[in-house]
Protein: Peptidyl-tRNA hydrolase
Amino acid sequence: MSADLWLVVGLGNPGPSYAGNRHNAGFMVLDVLAGRAGGRFKSHRSRSEVLEGRLGGVRVVLAKPRTFMNESGGPVKNLRDFYKVPLGRLVVVHDELDIPYGAVRLKQGGGDGGHNGLRSITRSLGEKEYLRVRFGVGRPLGRMDAAAFVLKDFSAAERKELGLEVGRAADAVEALLAGGLGAAQNAYHAV
Structure:
């Protein structure tokens, strides 16, 4: 096992037509982290785009599966097996309907809450105690189907603050890597 290496996976759907979708919040956060690490994503045999580098002195592999959200589990398992990362050093960054827009929450384990990406990862790993950084996208107003809502772009009002909010989520990932879950929760759950 690579005891000092972290694997941070952002969830989203591949392709330009999905780039601005709420469901791609995980990809957006990973793009910010890649900029901070000073590197570029490269194709990897795990069916992912990966960047190996450092964030604040911490060895990290950043990854974005090239599959659709509901098939994220295979690439995540392949990455974990390839890099030999312990489950406690696997971080999944994803959108979360049950959190208000822009809020960031961190946790370890738990259910999938109807999130198809998490469901696929848990099924492929056979375990659910991986770390999660959840980016709030809120719930749709009225009767809009939640699945349709997450596949829509952020609203014009949300986009005004999106860069700031995504940057804060990236900060939360770095806080988790540097100081552990408890410290990161204390810093980001109070906001």
